[in-house]
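Feature request, filed as a ticket because there's no other form

It would be nice if the structure record came with a short human-readable summary line next to the tokens. Right now we just get the raw output. Example of a typical job, pasted below so the devs can see what we mean:
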Amino acid sequence: MTRSASPKSKSKKAQQPPQPFLHTPDSLPAPVMAGRDFLSNLDTSPEELRAILDTAASMKRGEWRNVKPLQGLSLALLFEKASLRTRTTFDVGMYQLGGHAITLSNQEIGLGTRERVSDVARNLERWVDGIMGRVYLQHTLHELADHAEVPVINGLSDMLHPVQLLADYQTIEETVGPVQGKRVVYIGDGNNLANSHIHMGVLTGADVTIVTPVGFEPNGAVLMDAVRRGASVTLTSDLAAVDGADVLYTDVWISMGQEEDGARRRRAFQGYQVTPQMLERIAPQGIFLHCLPAHYGEETVPEATEHPKSRVFDQAENRLHAQKALLYHVMGQMKPRW
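Raw output as currently delivered:
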């Protein structure tokens, strides 16, 4: 005689959580930047950026565990500047997607000194499937891209830091929701982070405010281009702009290579330090972000990065997910050469 399930067993089965969605090789989204360079956030359209951020969120949920879309592909990591987050996340990201990363320091390559940048590009394109550069000059990345047939990714330059902004906006969406119309207030030096925030304002419709002392403004051409494109961007030195912000963001006052100008910069930025008291001025559900490393005692203090409104370490984690998503959308249609 067949016995029917008891009410208890039916109830228990009904209470089981749904199984998470897992991608298969046949269910992956189409790469939206196949084979293209990513030197600036503006190298994507709003729709392409949306696809990258959606993929990053999917990867963070663990939905890509069963697939290795970059199997057999290699990425060269070129470093003129020291790195913790960029190096680790690109290396681990390639591994998790089935590929391989090789790290090359400036001591080994000597971009523009030991070898011409164009020659480095022409060599690497014969061996690897992509190049990531963390360099001093934006021009170096453009020279690499001009002479390499494989895609080039900007891991940081003097002008822009676009991969960081992918992780930043993933973090913003996770915590404060859709970014269109949200007030993103950047306080501090008008450096590569400030320029890239302006670019993201163009792409997302966020209301971006740059708060910086007179003489330390972001790049004028970046700002004017954003205004021409209809972005909501405000430039001010008034700290009152912090009040009610949905996102408060800061970065170091003294970037690598600016150490000789440190004393002047510290004087100019007095009062622009993000403290717990300043975080009480942002929106009740607002968050604090910092791309790290932090120079505690200058642009912020440990009590701010450990504050309940801080999402600094979630932001650092998202470097991995966002860059994996970017790597997939740039390299996901490539086939191994061997």
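Something like this underneath would help us a lot:
Residues 164-255+265-317 form a domain with the Rossmann fold fold (CATH 3.40.50.1370).
The beta strands are 74-79, 100-105, 130-134, 152-156, 183-187, 207-211, 233-236, 247-250, 287-290.
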